[in-house]
Amino acid sequence: MKKLLKKIDVHAHVILFQEYEFSKTFVVTPEMLLGIYDEIGVDKGVLLPITSPEAHAGLVLPNGATRAVVEKYPDRFYWFCNVDPRSLDNTDHTDFTALLDHFKRLGAKGMGELTANLYVDDPKMDNMFSYMAAAGLPVTIHIAPEPDGYYGVVDDLGLPRLEKMLRKHPDLKIFGHSQPFWAEIDAGLTRANRNDYPTGKVTEGRLGKLMREYPNLYCDMSAGSCYNAMTRDPEYAYRFIEEFGDRMMYAIDVCHPENRQIRNMVRWLDESYEKGYISEKNYRGICRENAIRILGLDAPKEVWK
Ligand SMILES: [Zn+2]
Questions:
Q1: Residues paired with 44 in a beta bridge
Q2: What is the mean pLDDT of residues 18-47?
Q3: Which domains, and CATH codes, for the chain?
Q4: How far apart are CA 154 and CA 220, in angstroms?
Q5: pLDDT 10s digits, 43-61
Q6: Which end of the chain is more exposed for a tag (fewer CB within 10 A), N or C?
Q7: Closest to 13 in 3D by CA, of 106, 80, 103
Q8: Model's pTM, two decimal places?
Protein backbone atom coordinates (compact mmCIF):
# COMPACT_ATOMS: atom_id res chain seq x y z
CA MET A 1 0.00 0.00 0.00
CA LYS A 2 1.38 3.39 -0.99
CA LYS A 3 1.10 6.16 1.60
CA LEU A 4 -1.41 8.85 0.62
CA LEU A 5 -0.90 12.54 1.17
CA LYS A 6 -3.24 15.10 2.60
CA LYS A 7 -3.97 17.82 0.06
CA ILE A 8 -3.76 21.59 -0.12
CA ASP A 9 -6.88 23.07 -1.78
CA VAL A 10 -5.96 26.17 -3.82
CA HIS A 11 -9.55 27.18 -4.63
CA ALA A 12 -12.00 27.64 -1.73
CA HIS A 13 -14.97 29.94 -1.13
CA VAL A 14 -16.76 30.53 2.14
CA ILE A 15 -19.48 32.81 3.45
CA LEU A 16 -19.77 33.94 7.07
CA PHE A 17 -23.46 34.30 7.83
CA GLN A 18 -25.58 31.71 6.07
CA GLU A 19 -28.77 33.15 7.55
CA TYR A 20 -28.35 36.51 5.79
CA GLU A 21 -27.36 35.23 2.33
CA PHE A 22 -29.77 35.37 -0.59
CA SER A 23 -27.61 33.01 -2.61
CA LYS A 24 -28.35 29.29 -2.40
CA THR A 25 -25.17 28.52 -4.36
CA PHE A 26 -22.62 29.74 -1.83
CA VAL A 27 -23.62 28.31 1.52
CA VAL A 28 -20.42 26.85 3.00
CA THR A 29 -19.13 28.50 6.17
CA PRO A 30 -15.46 28.16 7.24
CA GLU A 31 -16.51 25.59 9.86
CA MET A 32 -18.46 23.54 7.30
CA LEU A 33 -15.50 23.66 4.91
CA LEU A 34 -13.12 22.45 7.63
CA GLY A 35 -15.52 19.55 8.30
CA ILE A 36 -15.37 18.62 4.60
CA TYR A 37 -11.57 18.97 4.62
CA ASP A 38 -11.25 16.65 7.65
CA GLU A 39 -13.48 14.07 6.01
CA ILE A 40 -11.61 13.90 2.66
CA GLY A 41 -8.06 14.58 3.85
CA VAL A 42 -7.27 18.23 3.08
CA ASP A 43 -5.20 19.98 5.73
CA LYS A 44 -5.06 23.49 4.26
CA GLY A 45 -7.06 25.65 1.88
CA VAL A 46 -6.60 28.93 0.04
CA LEU A 47 -9.65 31.18 0.42
CA LEU A 48 -10.61 33.14 -2.69
CA PRO A 49 -12.90 36.16 -2.27
CA ILE A 50 -15.19 37.09 -5.18
CA THR A 51 -15.60 40.83 -5.46
CA SER A 52 -17.22 41.31 -8.89
CA PRO A 53 -21.02 41.47 -9.04
CA GLU A 54 -21.64 39.45 -12.23
CA ALA A 55 -24.04 36.58 -11.74
CA HIS A 56 -23.83 36.73 -7.96
CA ALA A 57 -26.37 38.08 -5.52
CA GLY A 58 -23.63 39.70 -3.46
CA LEU A 59 -19.94 39.66 -2.80
CA VAL A 60 -18.73 36.19 -1.91
CA LEU A 61 -16.71 37.24 1.11
CA PRO A 62 -14.95 40.60 0.72
CA ASN A 63 -11.17 40.94 1.16
CA GLY A 64 -11.17 42.06 4.80
CA ALA A 65 -13.54 39.31 5.91
CA THR A 66 -11.43 36.70 4.10
CA ARG A 67 -8.35 37.92 5.93
CA ALA A 68 -10.27 37.70 9.22
CA VAL A 69 -11.11 34.02 8.58
CA VAL A 70 -7.39 33.31 8.12
CA GLU A 71 -6.74 35.14 11.41
CA LYS A 72 -9.24 32.81 13.11
CA TYR A 73 -7.86 29.58 11.58
CA PRO A 74 -4.19 30.33 10.82
CA ASP A 75 -3.24 26.64 10.67
CA ARG A 76 -5.88 25.81 8.08
CA PHE A 77 -6.29 28.75 5.70
CA TYR A 78 -4.30 31.04 3.44
CA TRP A 79 -5.93 33.70 1.32
CA PHE A 80 -5.89 35.51 -1.99
CA CYS A 81 -6.99 39.14 -2.31
CA ASN A 82 -9.41 40.00 -5.08
CA VAL A 83 -9.33 43.22 -7.09
CA ASP A 84 -11.77 43.99 -9.87
CA PRO A 85 -9.95 45.59 -12.84
CA ARG A 86 -12.55 48.38 -12.79
CA SER A 87 -12.00 49.22 -9.12
CA LEU A 88 -10.42 52.43 -7.78
CA ASP A 89 -10.68 54.67 -10.90
CA ASN A 90 -12.35 52.45 -13.55
CA THR A 91 -9.71 53.37 -16.18
CA ASP A 92 -7.16 51.46 -18.25
CA HIS A 93 -4.33 53.33 -16.50
CA THR A 94 -5.32 52.95 -12.82
CA ASP A 95 -2.29 52.50 -10.56
CA PHE A 96 -2.90 49.39 -8.42
CA THR A 97 0.50 49.44 -6.68
CA ALA A 98 -0.62 50.71 -3.27
CA LEU A 99 -3.72 48.49 -3.15
CA LEU A 100 -1.80 45.32 -4.03
CA ASP A 101 0.99 46.24 -1.58
CA HIS A 102 -1.64 46.66 1.13
CA PHE A 103 -3.01 43.14 0.54
CA LYS A 104 0.49 41.67 0.27
CA ARG A 105 1.38 43.15 3.66
CA LEU A 106 -1.70 41.35 5.01
CA GLY A 107 -0.37 38.06 3.67
CA ALA A 108 -2.29 37.62 0.40
CA LYS A 109 -0.62 34.87 -1.64
CA GLY A 110 -2.25 35.74 -4.94
CA MET A 111 -5.27 37.37 -6.57
CA GLY A 112 -8.62 35.86 -7.48
CA GLU A 113 -10.86 34.29 -8.30
CA LEU A 114 -11.07 36.88 -11.08
CA THR A 115 -14.65 36.80 -12.38
CA ALA A 116 -15.12 40.27 -13.94
CA ASN A 117 -17.06 39.81 -17.18
CA LEU A 118 -14.58 41.66 -19.41
CA TYR A 119 -12.52 40.23 -22.26
CA VAL A 120 -9.32 38.81 -20.85
CA ASP A 121 -7.33 41.23 -23.05
CA ASP A 122 -9.56 44.24 -22.25
CA PRO A 123 -7.35 47.33 -21.67
CA LYS A 124 -8.48 47.50 -18.01
CA MET A 125 -7.63 43.82 -17.49
CA ASP A 126 -4.31 44.22 -19.31
CA ASN A 127 -3.47 47.21 -17.10
CA MET A 128 -4.22 45.32 -13.91
CA PHE A 129 -2.19 42.31 -15.05
CA SER A 130 0.89 44.59 -15.36
CA TYR A 131 0.54 45.64 -11.71
CA MET A 132 -0.04 42.07 -10.54
CA ALA A 133 3.05 40.88 -12.39
CA ALA A 134 5.06 43.70 -10.77
CA ALA A 135 3.67 42.74 -7.34
CA GLY A 136 4.55 39.08 -7.91
CA LEU A 137 0.97 37.97 -7.28
CA PRO A 138 -0.35 35.03 -9.33
CA VAL A 139 -3.98 35.21 -10.49
CA THR A 140 -6.73 32.58 -10.65
CA ILE A 141 -9.10 33.28 -13.53
CA HIS A 142 -12.56 31.90 -14.25
CA ILE A 143 -12.96 31.91 -18.05
CA ALA A 144 -16.43 32.62 -19.47
CA PRO A 145 -17.48 31.79 -23.04
CA GLU A 146 -19.30 35.05 -23.81
CA PRO A 147 -19.83 38.57 -22.50
CA ASP A 148 -23.30 38.94 -20.94
CA GLY A 149 -25.14 36.13 -19.26
CA TYR A 150 -22.05 34.72 -17.53
CA TYR A 151 -19.53 35.55 -14.84
CA GLY A 152 -15.83 35.29 -15.60
CA VAL A 153 -13.23 36.80 -17.91
CA VAL A 154 -14.23 36.27 -21.51
CA ASP A 155 -12.28 34.51 -24.22
CA ASP A 156 -13.11 33.05 -27.62
CA LEU A 157 -12.81 29.46 -28.81
CA GLY A 158 -9.13 28.46 -28.70
CA LEU A 159 -8.31 31.06 -25.99
CA PRO A 160 -6.53 33.53 -28.33
CA ARG A 161 -6.94 36.46 -25.94
CA LEU A 162 -5.49 34.51 -23.02
CA GLU A 163 -2.52 33.64 -25.24
CA LYS A 164 -2.03 37.37 -25.96
CA MET A 165 -1.88 38.09 -22.21
CA LEU A 166 0.42 35.11 -21.48
CA ARG A 167 2.83 36.43 -24.12
CA LYS A 168 2.58 40.06 -22.98
CA HIS A 169 2.97 39.31 -19.24
CA PRO A 170 5.56 36.50 -19.00
CA ASP A 171 6.17 37.27 -15.30
CA LEU A 172 2.49 36.88 -14.36
CA LYS A 173 1.51 33.37 -13.27
CA ILE A 174 -2.02 32.68 -14.52
CA PHE A 175 -4.01 29.78 -12.99
CA GLY A 176 -6.67 28.66 -15.49
CA HIS A 177 -10.05 27.34 -14.32
CA SER A 178 -13.67 26.71 -15.50
CA GLN A 179 -15.34 24.77 -18.31
CA PRO A 180 -14.12 26.86 -21.30
CA PHE A 181 -10.54 26.48 -19.98
CA TRP A 182 -10.63 22.70 -19.46
CA ALA A 183 -12.76 21.93 -22.55
CA GLU A 184 -9.74 23.17 -24.56
CA ILE A 185 -7.92 19.98 -23.53
CA ASP A 186 -9.48 18.50 -26.71
CA ALA A 187 -9.16 19.82 -30.25
CA GLY A 188 -12.74 18.77 -31.02
CA LEU A 189 -14.63 21.25 -28.85
CA THR A 190 -17.10 23.67 -30.44
CA ARG A 191 -18.66 26.99 -29.54
CA ALA A 192 -21.77 25.05 -28.54
CA ASN A 193 -20.14 22.73 -25.98
CA ARG A 194 -17.21 24.74 -24.66
CA ASN A 195 -19.06 25.84 -21.52
CA ASP A 196 -20.11 22.26 -20.90
CA TYR A 197 -18.52 18.96 -19.90
CA PRO A 198 -17.62 17.35 -23.25
CA THR A 199 -16.88 13.63 -23.17
CA GLY A 200 -14.92 11.14 -25.30
CA LYS A 201 -11.33 10.47 -26.35
CA VAL A 202 -9.03 13.49 -26.43
CA THR A 203 -6.94 14.75 -29.32
CA GLU A 204 -4.49 17.32 -27.99
CA GLY A 205 -6.19 20.71 -28.04
CA ARG A 206 -5.15 24.28 -27.34
CA LEU A 207 -4.62 23.66 -23.63
CA GLY A 208 -1.65 21.33 -24.13
CA LYS A 209 -0.15 23.65 -26.72
CA LEU A 210 -0.52 26.74 -24.49
CA MET A 211 0.94 24.87 -21.49
CA ARG A 212 3.94 23.83 -23.59
CA GLU A 213 4.55 27.28 -25.04
CA TYR A 214 3.87 29.45 -21.96
CA PRO A 215 5.60 28.46 -18.70
CA ASN A 216 3.54 31.14 -16.92
CA LEU A 217 0.29 29.17 -17.45
CA TYR A 218 -0.81 26.89 -14.58
CA CYS A 219 -3.79 24.57 -14.02
CA ASP A 220 -6.26 24.95 -11.15
CA MET A 221 -7.73 21.43 -10.90
CA SER A 222 -10.97 22.43 -9.18
CA ALA A 223 -14.60 21.72 -9.96
CA GLY A 224 -16.32 19.34 -12.33
CA SER A 225 -14.55 20.92 -15.31
CA CYS A 226 -11.08 19.57 -14.45
CA TYR A 227 -12.45 16.27 -13.18
CA ASN A 228 -14.32 15.81 -16.46
CA ALA A 229 -11.24 16.77 -18.52
CA MET A 230 -9.08 14.25 -16.64
CA THR A 231 -11.53 11.34 -16.58
CA ARG A 232 -13.03 11.55 -20.11
CA ASP A 233 -9.82 10.01 -21.46
CA PRO A 234 -7.54 8.94 -18.58
CA GLU A 235 -4.82 7.73 -20.96
CA TYR A 236 -4.43 11.28 -22.32
CA ALA A 237 -4.82 12.77 -18.82
CA TYR A 238 -1.89 10.73 -17.50
CA ARG A 239 0.28 11.92 -20.40
CA PHE A 240 -0.83 15.53 -19.70
CA ILE A 241 0.12 15.12 -16.02
CA GLU A 242 3.45 13.52 -16.98
CA GLU A 243 4.32 16.58 -19.07
CA PHE A 244 2.76 19.41 -17.04
CA GLY A 245 2.45 17.92 -13.51
CA ASP A 246 4.74 20.55 -12.01
CA ARG A 247 2.20 23.29 -12.92
CA MET A 248 -1.01 21.55 -11.79
CA MET A 249 -2.53 22.12 -8.35
CA TYR A 250 -5.19 20.16 -6.52
CA ALA A 251 -8.31 22.25 -5.80
CA ILE A 252 -11.99 21.71 -5.05
CA ASP A 253 -14.06 24.93 -5.47
CA VAL A 254 -16.70 23.93 -2.91
CA CYS A 255 -19.64 26.31 -2.80
CA HIS A 256 -22.26 23.91 -1.48
CA PRO A 257 -21.96 20.71 0.61
CA GLU A 258 -23.75 18.77 -2.17
CA ASN A 259 -21.17 19.70 -4.86
CA ARG A 260 -20.13 16.49 -6.60
CA GLN A 261 -16.50 17.56 -6.99
CA ILE A 262 -15.87 17.37 -3.24
CA ARG A 263 -14.89 13.69 -3.24
CA ASN A 264 -14.30 12.99 -6.95
CA MET A 265 -10.89 14.52 -7.59
CA VAL A 266 -9.32 13.38 -4.32
CA ARG A 267 -10.39 9.79 -5.06
CA TRP A 268 -9.21 9.91 -8.69
CA LEU A 269 -5.79 11.31 -7.74
CA ASP A 270 -5.22 8.82 -4.92
CA GLU A 271 -6.36 5.83 -7.01
CA SER A 272 -4.33 6.90 -10.06
CA TYR A 273 -1.23 7.17 -7.87
CA GLU A 274 -1.90 3.86 -6.10
CA LYS A 275 -2.27 2.08 -9.46
CA GLY A 276 0.98 3.65 -10.73
CA TYR A 277 -0.55 5.88 -13.43
CA ILE A 278 0.76 9.04 -11.75
CA SER A 279 4.41 9.19 -10.64
CA GLU A 280 5.27 9.87 -7.01
CA LYS A 281 6.91 13.16 -8.05
CA ASN A 282 3.77 14.41 -9.81
CA TYR A 283 1.46 13.10 -7.06
CA ARG A 284 3.45 14.98 -4.45
CA GLY A 285 3.52 18.08 -6.66
CA ILE A 286 -0.22 18.11 -7.41
CA CYS A 287 -1.29 17.30 -3.83
CA ARG A 288 0.92 19.85 -2.06
CA GLU A 289 4.40 20.70 -3.29
CA ASN A 290 3.44 22.78 -6.35
CA ALA A 291 1.13 25.01 -4.27
CA ILE A 292 3.83 25.39 -1.60
CA ARG A 293 6.47 26.33 -4.19
CA ILE A 294 4.35 28.52 -6.47
CA LEU A 295 2.49 30.41 -3.71
CA GLY A 296 5.35 30.46 -1.20
CA LEU A 297 3.30 28.71 1.53
CA ASP A 298 4.85 27.80 4.88
CA ALA A 299 3.05 24.40 4.86
CA PRO A 300 4.94 21.12 5.46
CA LYS A 301 5.74 19.18 2.28
CA GLU A 302 4.47 15.91 3.72
CA VAL A 303 1.31 15.34 5.73
CA TRP A 304 0.14 11.73 5.47
CA LYS A 305 -3.49 10.71 5.52
ZN1 LIG B 1 -14.53 29.36 -7.62
A1: 8
A2: 92
A3: 7-295 (3.20.20.140)
A4: 17
A5: 999 999 998 888 777 778 8
A6: N
A7: 80
A8: 0.97
